[in-house]
Amino acid sequence: MGNSLQPLLFDVDGTGNFLLEIDTMAAPPGGSVADNGLRNGSDAATWDFYNNYYSSSEYKSNVSIGNFSVNARDFGSARIEGMIVQHLKIQTKDLGQ
After folding, report:
1. d(CA 30, CA 12)
2. pLDDT in tens, 42-82
3. Strand-strand pairing, 69-70 and 73-74
4. Cα gap 51→37, rounded to integer Å
5. How far apart are CA 1 and CA 86, in angstroms?
6. Could you report the per-residue pLDDT of 22-35, keeping only the tens digit for each?
7. Which of 16, 53, 60, 61 holds its CA 20 to 30 A away from the CA of 86?
8. Contacts with 37 (C-beta within 8 Å, 6 or more apart), sequence order
9. Is 78:65 a contact under the CB 8 Å cutoff?
10. Beta partners for residue 45, in sequence order
């Protein structure tokens, strides 16, 4: 997750909480796509943006966790492939404060 198109930020704030954020995806050009979804009749730059967005591997992330366990509970491995992230922000909070 995270690349030149959507940088990944990992930070720790002053209270010791973690912040993991993937930047918001760049907005497409202001044109429109034709009702039939074809490039012919669409704004070419807008159609190309969406076509590239859904077909290019650069926009897709793969996440693999070898062994996911919490305390004594083992949930095994987990894998997500081809995930497209528009924007992601995960921030821990200390519930005692």
Report:
1. 36
2. 999 999 999 988 888 888 888 788 887 878 888 888 888 88
3. antiparallel
4. 10
5. 12
6. 888 888 888 999 99
7. 16
8. none
9. yes
10. none
